[in-house]
Design goal:
single chain; alpha+beta; Arp2/3 complex 21 kDa subunit ARPC3; Sulfite Oxidase, Chain A, domain 2; 3 domains; 5-stranded mixed β-sheet
Length: 458
């Protein structure tokens, strides 16, 4: 493989470099949303600590590819920042924390490559890819939407080791062989520079590290949960919950989260919601966090699962609240800011036999994924289920021919072949003040029909 020295300024990025970083960060940002969905499915199937971290390297592979092709200090960091921005805008469920995760990942990939004179050997890819997976565990342990004490030291070590192995394989081996194959085929030209000319690169990475620390401190302070939580929506007695104005005693529960048994002491969430006198048709609870993360919890689980607690962290002005105990790990939410009670009327679905049925969002929580949807009143991050999965659940063995989507003023008709197996087209749930509406939209954010009121299966 021929290596060409195409630059003298170690921090200068050509148009080609910027284009490579933009393309790879866009691909990585969009792909990470689907990687999260797949890794959650594996976790649900296997159910042991670290099961979600097998895919950690798949999040970093794009950053390592950019660094391997461009071979300039800062390429990994800038790709990480761009990737995080794409993930945030495309509706990644982790909220603004993803910016810090990808920034640190890019910084560590840069650092791993900068240690070596010859960056086109396998070892720099191993070190860069392995280090780049660390934020997937460490940053989320500090900031993510799970309680602080959910993981003990041994569990963190297990997660870190699984992520490291994933980084070596997916973000080490694969980018190394892919970059070399592309170079041999003449598709890309790899630039390289002697180590002694990259001192400014070290200063650059130290500067970015300092900024990353400042960002972490800023997020740590500003993403702290409020001292009170607004309880509103389809209730008769909306109020602000705080430990000072809630007189019910705390309870202690032992719960298993991803294989780690931990004891929690907090307020039963059901009693907190009952204190607001939910309306008779209320059936869903929307839990929102300070970082923008939100998740739906059905009243059925709220009534049946006695482990669901609101756990207080800190005291006085430093108090914040976390939800623990739901069956879905996605509903273990840290720094809760708002609880909204919802009365869902459901979406009408008419099957081929002419039966009138309803689509209930809380039956599909495990199939939902989120993205920004451009609604007429402004863009919102919404959770949606693939249309084909919904339709398949309401028909027998025979295959449908046509699907008709209706709103109050418009109708869209599609052939089943256009929908079958297509995850991009989804029914998204819109949380309103006291109820739920629906829209037919794409994961790109484009709205096809709003509001969606009925689906007819032919």
């Amino acid at each position: 493989m021929s290596i060409k020295n195409t630059h003298t300024n170690p921090l200068y990025f050509s148009t080609r470099d910027l284009l490579i970083m933009a393309v790879l960060s866009a691909l990585g940002g969009v792909a990470s949303t689907y990687v999260n969905t797949i890794s959650d499915a594996v976790q649900a199937a296997l159910g042991f600590p670290g099961a979600t971290q097998w895919a950690a390297g798949l999040h970093v592979i794009w950053i390592v590819l950019a660094m391997g092709i461009i071979s300039k200090p800062g390429a990994g960091t800038l790709t990480g920042i761009l990737k995080g921005a794409v993930e945030l805008m495309s509706g990644n469920s982790h909220g603004v924390i993803i910016l810090l995760v990808d920034l640190v990942a890019g910084l560590l990939v840069d650092f791993g490559f900068l240690l070596f004179h010859n960056k086109q050997q396998l070892l720099p890819y191993f070190i860069g890819g392995g280090l780049g997976t660390a934020p997937n565990v460490l940053v989320f342990q500090l900031f993510a939407t799970i309680p602080q004490n959910i993981l003990g030291l041994s569990a963190i070590l297990i997660l870190f080791l699984v992520a490291l192995v994933s980084g070596l394989i997916f973000a080490g081996f694969i980018p190394f062989f892919l970059v070399n194959a592309l170079a041999k085929a003449g598709v890309v030209k790899i630039s390289e520079r002697p180590l002694q000319k990259s001192k400014f690169g070290w200063w650059f990475l130290l500067g970015v590290l300092f900024l990353a620390i400042l960002l972490a401190i800023f997020l740590r302070i500003n993403l702290k949960g409020p001292q009170g939580i607004q309880i509103s929506g389809a209730v008769e007695n909306a109020y602000e919950f705080s430990s000072q104005n809630f007189k019910i005693e705390k309870v202690t529960k032992q719960m298993d989260y991803r294989g780690t048994l931990t004891e929690y002491r907090g307020y039963p969430l059901l009693q907190i919601i009952d204190s607001a006198d939910p309306k008779s048709n209320a059936d869903t609870l929307l839990i929102e966090a300070t970082d923008g993360y939100a998740f739906l919890l059905s009243f059925e689980e709220l009534f049946q699962n006695e482990n669901i607690l609101l756990v207080e962290g800190g005291k006085g002005q430093n108090a914040s609240y976390d939800v623990v105990g739901p069956v879905s790990s996605k509903a273990w939410i840290r720094n809760v800011s708002k609880l909204t009670v919802i009365a869902s009327e459901g979406l009408k679905i008419i099957n081929p036999e002419g039966d009138l049925l309803k689509f209930e969002p809380d039956d599909w929580l495990g199939e939902m994924d989120s993205t920004q949807i451009a609604l007429p009143g402004g863009s919102q991050k919404l959770q949606g289920v693939p249309v084909w999965k919904i339709v398949a659940a309401y028909v027998d063995d025979e295959q449908p021919e046509r699907i008709i989507f209706r709103s109050d003023a418009e109708t869209i008709e599609m052939n089943w072949s256009e929908i079958d197996g297509v995850d991009n087209l989804r029914i998204f749930t819109i949380i309103e003040d006291e109820g739920i509406a629906f829209t037919l939209a794409e994961m790109s954010g484009e709205v096809r029909l709003y509001p969606l009121t009925e689906i007819v299966i032919k």
